[in-house]
Amino acid sequence: MISNSSIASPSRYKQILTLSLISLSYLLLSFVLVGFKSDQLVLVGLVNGLYFASDQSRKFLIGFSIFIVYWIVFDYMKAFPNYRYNDVHIESLYLLEKKLFGIASGSSILTPNEYWLAHRTTFLNVLTGLFYVSWIPIPLLFATYLFIKDRPAFYPLALTFVLVNLLGFVIYYVYPAAPPWYVQAYGFTFHAHTPGNTAGLANFDQYFGISLFSSIYAKSSNVFAAMPSLHSSYPVIVLYYGLKNKMGLVNIFFALVMVGIWFSAVYTSHHYVLDVLAGITCALVGITLFNRVQKTSWLTTFIHQLVTLTS
């Protein structure tokens, strides 16, 4: 059984030595797999700072270590691009999107991405950028709120988040898929080392004279991981747990952000409608699976131990 005493029992020297070894191992492995990046030092500094700052910050770090592990795994996917293991779906996905959701425009049939590419407005450029940039901050802020206010409710959210991501990662490797902007830029020809692209989000950066999205997508783990859209999964998880935890009017905000992110994914040419639907399905499947597994005694005990450890 885990207890609070397990946090404070080792000597400070042993804690420093252990965390230093973990930090150095992470930096070394990162260098070997994906090369050195400054944000790796930021992560190491943040983890060490939170661990040694206070008992409360250490508990916060332990609770949110689930999200840290996710970030590291996502980053390491660069070392194992999915196109090495399966063919990338480019033209077939584009044609299926056009067949199912095509929009008549004169004598042509356009995909929803192509339609919005021809009907961009400054208002929608800014609005979709604001929605899209919230896809990580809002889940993290909501998770922080639950961690502070209701720790037993925090861990189901965090574990569901991990499960949905793992499901998405599996699909990335089973079904590598090019995003709409790739077809707009390169056609149906496969180019293995294609860099990340801001696509329609470049309009947001240009309007404000910043490089927010360009800096984010320069670090893209794999451009051929468009299916499913995990951007579309996260707000579903947030809304579900918002409703489950009776967040009241905040859930209206969560719902608006959810729909806004779905629309933004298509408007900016980062995802097809099919990608968005796959992301929604991935979230619903993950939530359902977790709810079933949560009824088992071992997971109930595990969550109770985590709550005890960080209380």
Quick structural gist:
The protein is mainly α and 311 residues long.
Q: What tags apply to this protein structure?
A:
single chain, about 300 residues, mainly alpha, two-stranded antiparallel sheet, 16 helices, globular, Aur1/Ipt1, IPC_Synthase-Related, Inositol phosphorylceramide synthase, membrane, transmembrane helix
Q: Topology as H/E string? A: HHHHHEEHHHHHHHHHHH
What amount of the residues lies in strands?
A: under 5%
Rg, Cα atoms, Å: 21 Å
Structural domains: how many: 1
| Terminal CA distance | 14 Å
Q: Characterize the biggest β-sheet.
A: 2 strands, antiparallel
Oligomer: single chain
- Name the strands of the widest sheet in spatial order: 1-2
The helix content is: 55-70%
The assigned structural class equals mainly alpha
Number of helices: 16
Strand segment tally: 2
Identify the overall geometry: globular
What would the average pLDDT be, to the nearest integer?
92
Low-confidence stretches: 1-8
Domain Inositolphosphotransferase Aur1/Ipt1: 116-288
Membrane topology: Multi-pass membrane protein
InterPro entries: Aur1/Ipt1 (IPR026841), IPC_Synthase-Related (IPR052185)
Subcellular location: Membrane
